[in-house]
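In response to a reviewer's request, we include the raw inputs and outputs for one of the modeled complexes. The two entities were modeled together in a single run.
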Amino acid sequence: MTPFAIAVHGGAGTIDRADLTPEREQAYQHALADALRRGHALLQDGASALDAVEAAVRVLEDTPLFNAGRGSVFNADGQHEMDAAIMDGSGLQAGGVAGVQNVKNPIRLARRVMEKSGHVLISGMGAFEFAHREKIELEDDQYFFDPFRYEQWQRVQGTDATRLDHSGGERKFGTVGAVALDRHGHLAAATSTGGMTNKRYQRIGDSPVIGAGTYANDATCAISCTGNGEAFLRAVAAHDVHALMAYKGLSLDEAVRVVVHERLPPLDGEGGMIAVDRAGRVVLDFNSTGMYRGSMGADGVARTAIFR
Amino acid sequence: MTPFAIAVHGGAGTIDRADLTPEREQAYQHALADALRRGHALLQDGASALDAVEAAVRVLEDTPLFNAGRGSVFNADGQHEMDAAIMDGSGLQAGGVAGVQNVKNPIRLARRVMEKSGHVLISGMGAFEFAHREKIELEDDQYFFDPFRYEQWQRVQGTDATRLDHSGGERKFGTVGAVALDRHGHLAAATSTGGMTNKRYQRIGDSPVIGAGTYANDATCAISCTGNGEAFLRAVAAHDVHALMAYKGLSLDEAVRVVVHERLPPLDGEGGMIAVDRAGRVVLDFNSTGMYRGSMGADGVARTAIFR
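The model returned the following structure tokens for the whole complex.
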């Protein structure tokens, strides 16, 4: 049987077990499994890895549980500025959006950027203008509103503090992402995020940057990261995994281990990544206490987890 | 003698000899030599590579000859949106700005982002707000106005065409950049650009993206790129040179050759890059007909060139 596989994440960080009620934990596991099933069904039918990662990320964007799409955090101006990127490992095509507002599914817009804009990365009101022109589904501010995120923001509004999706004892980086290998041997990666609570200066993190938070190359692997974006940008984290495999001959799990546990920590790089290689091997690794994550291979069994 | 070296570029592309009068060619060579001397003087005195690349890029931003700072091209709205990034190879610190307006020296702002913002990449009005707060020198629109750039824009305004700094037969990517090795063995890279004439959607190119258009790592090399930004983003071009050296053991000139002549062309990646390694070896390579470029080693002799 031709191997195929999909993996997803919903962020990483210091997740306090005490803060996570059994009901809330179950809700996270269900959402991750839903995303996996959605992508898996497409792969099973012979769809592309690109379609599978987009579909899986859309499921995660549509739930307010994660900091992406619906449920994105508030920036310093009380708005939702979202970032996303997608990459097709077969032709190294890529698209990303940074700081876009009111787009229901930023990952869909990122894909349209890849296919229609002639660019790789667009931003802000320009990205909104492109979304409007391409008739990408928009939503009003009310759609993105989540009382939990609003309360997070109220605690730091008017200060210089940014919060990487803090809540109580929880230091969490609430990005979502997916990686997949399809039956045709192609790899793809997708990442989407609402960034940091109370962020300023139209900060761009690693998620929409090809090579930092998102990368796919049929020669090696597909990667989606979550964590302290500044460190992942400086480490060019996703491309570094590819390079360790391509040029040093490391296996996927060795390459991910080097980047997550050796390269990122000296740069204050807390977080993790999900990865799949061309043989369908999946690696979900992180240097924080937890990462919302899951994977599903050809057997169709959803394996989800939060803690180690 | 401890080696030290600096190299600069002022863009690459299809430069038509017939379009370049002897006077104009001389003006370009003089500007490149000025930038080299400025950076070299600092290095000679024991200053950091970081100070040298910032100073050299500021010289190139201040002349209207190049598409960066003063002399930046017009976007679709008739404005100047500038991108820049700087990276310190000693601690992998980095800063960048995307789509900033009215900042006299975007490279200076990029450095301030690195040192003061807590972020790696900021954009648009947010970057302007940070510049204002940090008392970075601003200029009105008139300062950036260049009749040659205005005429370029007038020819494509109102159309969907973007121009990578076209003029007549000249298909030129008018970014500027500098790389340096200092007497303490540290490397740094800096890049600054006005992007594409008539660009839309707040497009972000490779210049402000760490790993794509700009990268420095004391372990290997410092790189600044110029060319079709979309291809350099997809290739993660600058970091790929580093990776080929670090993981595959290639020399600087071999690594640059692989990326410029093998990786980029299949992605429609026209352009080039300047690079320096920890031994002070300089490589200036491109796959287009020309690149405005120059280098200066410890001997203090400016070597500048435009064509092959």
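As requested, we also summarize the result in words. The radius of gyration of chain B is 17 Å. Chain B is about 35% helix and 25% strand.
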